[in-house]
């Protein structure tokens, strides 16, 4: 059966934005600065342990360095903490970037008359800051962040909120995301068609998407 799509919804990080590349480089800079400021660990060991904490607390945890220092040295040393935060922020400003051809693809989709949206697990401020920094805000008819529903994907609420704003049948919406367990499963639960952003995929699970995108421009073939 041929599907005529009226809207495309995207996950944000690792789908439109090369988030993990930025996260690694920022974290490397932060760890290096903290070691120089007195953290008693080798840089490679500190980086490994920091990412283990990201796995435990979440990649968006805003207090991750505080908890990291409490775990590693038993307290928050503000000299070390400040060094890490400043280094992280300096690198972040220069590393936030989209995947190749994201802007071109969004322009093509808008030209074809499709509604566009974001459904992200990022907190509202972080999500909007990324969109603003990359000058992507005006492309989207709806943006749903974690703060808008209080529920992370694959819960139905974030997807349903986007559907309610767009007022489009979910069967006519394509959802694009990198995480099968969160993005693909969640979108399927509300009746959307799904496309896996293979180019940004970090997690491997059994959930299968309707389409697979090796690069973001592949979506133009899907919506035909």
Task: Tell me the series of helices and strands, N- to C-terminal.
Answer: EHHHHHEHEHHEHEEH
Beta-strand residue fraction:
5-15%
The CATH topology of the largest domain is what?
Answer: Rossmann fold
**Which whole number gives the mean pLDDT?**
94
Radius of gyration, rounded?
A: 19 Å
User: How far apart are the first and last residues' alpha carbons, in Å?
Assistant: 13 Å
Q: What's the total helix number?
A: 10
The second-level CATH architecture of the largest domain is: 3-Layer(aba) Sandwich
CATH class of the largest domain, please? Alpha Beta
Percent helix, as a range, is 40-55%
Poorly predicted regions are: none
Coarse shape:
elongated
Main sheet summary? 6 strands, parallel
Order of neighbouring strands in the sheet with most strands: 3-2-1-4-5-6
Question: What is the CATH superfamily classification of the largest domain?
Answer: HAD superfamily/HAD-like
Beta strands, count: 6
